[in-house]
Amino acid sequence: MQIFDYDNILLLPRKCRVESRSECDTSVTLGERCFRLPVVPANMKTVVDESICLWLAQNGYFYVMHRFDLDNVKFVKDMQGKGVFASISLGVKKADYDTVDQLAAQGLVPEYVTIDIAHGHADSVKNMIGYLKQKLPKTFVIAGNVGTPEAVIDLENWGADATKVGIGPGKVCITKLKTGFGTGGWQLSALKWCARVATKPIIADGGIRDHGDIAKSVRFGASMVMIGSLFAGHEESPGKTVEVDGKLFKEYYGSASDFNKGEYKHVEGKRILEPIKGKLADTLIEMEQDVQSSISYAGGRALMDIRKVNYVTLGGDNAGEHLLM
Ligand SMILES: NC(=O)C1=CN([C@@H]2O[C@H](COP(=O)(O)OP(=O)(O)OC[C@H]3O[C@@H](n4cnc5c(N)ncnc54)[C@H](OP(=O)(O)O)[C@@H]3O)[C@@H](O)[C@H]2O)C=CC1
Ligand SMILES: Nc1nc2c(ncn2[C@@H]2O[C@H](COP(=O)(O)O)[C@@H](O)[C@H]2O)c(=O)[nH]1
After folding, report:
1. How confident is the model at residue 319 (pLDDT cuts 50, 70, 90)?
2. Is 256 in the pocket of ligand 2 (CB under 6 A)?
3. Where does NADP(+) bind (predicted)?
4. 317 marked as part of a ligand binding site
């Protein structure tokens, strides 16, 4: 198997088929809804909160609310009461089963549920998928995180409607260092490996450092990418604002960090400071324009045309040209 990551791959252009990049359509369908960009901010406490999720839904973007210190039932009621879709995260503990029971008892059906645990290739996830499918059969279930084809096959067979791929490539992740496991450093080829067997959408999660990495993820099989660090440093980001030497930063910490957990137990995440870089809406517009450019370089008009391009690997033993035959 060939091993590579975002920084040692480049996609190869094909003859342009549009007169303006504005003709390129960046939208993607997930479940019954179409979203304007194949990007979702990470379901982390320093990345999204209720007001950001509401704004994203109202403006045509997908969102996944985090599951920490949150009343999920109230959140679903509030979002649907405001006329937008509800997309929540769940773990696999008793409290998460209680949430499903309460939702079902009150006739509340979130449009999306993401089962989000560190090691998603587990019977605990199989059981939660089964429970969701029994209690809330209309809900679109995303499950993860995983990093191998075997895991993607299992999650799909257990009933997941989409899988989330990425064990440890995140910017505040220390899983690789603490456990010796993961897809950190080769996330893009792990995605390619998983996509070969996937029959349902994959959300590539973690490791996106530049907007061009979105197109690279789509090329290697992602329907969508989940991004934390690039979204954590906005004026409206929920992390605390910190001033260092007259410059403003936002804190960004891992969901498995002691900052999120409130205790130092099974810590696999750290805290960093992201420089503040303006408004979230401006970043999303710039991302959309950049993905439109990517589609145009791919010689296409629609997002999935990016899948048709050849690529080169740069440096190392694997360097070379990779042509689609
Ligand atoms: N994408 C990634 O690489 C990673 C992401 N995270 C994020 O951090 C957050 C917290 O994650 P998590 O700790 O799973 O959430 P929880 O604390 O909700 O744990 C979920 C359940 O899974 C169990 N569990 C977690 N990791 C393992 C493992 N390696 N082997 C066996 N059982 C396990 C936990 O038990 P117990 O705690 O008793 O073991 C618990 O019962 C999530 O949002 C997750 O996505 C965390 C690490 C890696
Ligand atoms: N190993 C850990 N991974 C984590 C933790 N908290 C979040 N995450 C994952 O990172 C991505 C975001 O990655 P980024 O490169 O875009 O910043 C997020 O969606 C989670 O999957 C953690 O504490 N440990």
Report:
1. confident
2. yes
3. 202-225
4. no
